[in-house]
Amino acid sequence: MRIQNSLLLVVLLALETQLPVALCRKKGDKSGACPPDDRPCTQVTPDQCMNDRQCPSSWKCCSRACFRQCVPRVSVKLGSCPVDQLRCLGPTKHMCNQDSDCSGRKRCCASACGRDCRDPSKG
Predict the structure, then answer these.
(1) Helix or strand run (H / E) with residue 110
(2) DSSP string covering 45-108
(3) Mean per-residue pLDDT over the chain, rounded
(4) Residue 95 region, left (φ>0) first, then alpha (ψ -120 to 50), else beta?
């Protein structure tokens, strides 16, 4: 019984160390994503954090206009946003701000002229 418990402990520890890698996160990164920030940089401000571990609870350390700051995380759906190779000739217009604004599996993705709901890329 001790051998089984020891083996289980080793397996759980191994999984814990690989979980951030499996989820494409650095160790210490919290789940979720940073909310979009479209503000221009008007004043250089010192960073308030360097990584998620420095933020309280479920907040994340996110890039803002010119600095990093702890902010509430947003949830993300599975899949990657497709890459848009087009250039926008008109004004930026956002149709969504985060994945939860989109129905079904669609994600809120950056496009040439702003964010809109798109089917995620495969792979």
Answers:
(1) strand 107-111
(2) ---S-SSGGGSSTT-EEEE-SSSEEEE--B---SSBPPPP-----S----S-SSGGGS-TT-EE
(3) 79
(4) alpha
Phi, psi values for residue 2, rounded to 5°: -65, -40
Cα 55 to Cα 26, 61, 69, 120: the distances in Å are 15, 6, 9, 29
- Whole-angstrom Cα distance, residue 11 to residue 75? 29
CA–CA gap between residue 39 and residue 47 (Å, rounded): 16
**Identity of the residue numbered 109:** C
Could you report the per-residue pLDDT of 20-53, keeping only the tens digit for each? 333 444 666 888 889 888 888 888 889 999 999 9
Amino acid, single-letter form, for residue 96: C
